[in-house]
Write a structure and sequence with these properties.
Layout lengths: L1 H7 L3 H12 L8 H4 L4 H13 L3 E6 L2 E6 L1 H32 L5
Antiparallel strand pairs: 1-2
Length: about 110
């Protein structure tokens, strides 16, 4: 759900990992540790949280896990956020009309 996605993105290291994966043209294994200035164990914990939230996928390849963005889950996240923004747009338009009526700008 939306809260799970938001919580998973609530840490700067996780955002950095997501940005790195988004900009990669392939699934990533151990090189995330070379890019994110944190210990291997810390990066692994953040990857675990992102995977549990459904933001990334991980598959075992040999002795390592290969991580990539879960595009289907991100599409769901996008739809949830768009729904909120659409409701905010409607609310903003209603408030603008109400304000205009109070100021006698519209009949």
């Amino acid at each position: 759900d939306l809260a799970t996605f938001a919580k998973a993105l609530g840490h700067p290291a996780r955002v950095a990992i997501i940005e790195y994966l988004v900009n990669s043209d392939k699934c990533i294994t151990g090189e995330i540790v070379d890019v994110i200035p944190l210990a291997q164990a810390t990066v692994s914990q953040h990857l675990k949280e992102l995977k549990l939230a459904g933001l990334i996928k991980g598959s075992v390849e040999g002795n390592s896990v290969c991580y990539c963005i879960d595009c289907e889950k991100w599409e769901e996240f996008k739809k949830m956020l768009n729904n909120i923004f659409e409701k905010l747009d409607v609310k903003r338009r209603v408030q603008a009309v109400e304000k205009a009526k109070r100021l006698n700008l519209v009949p």
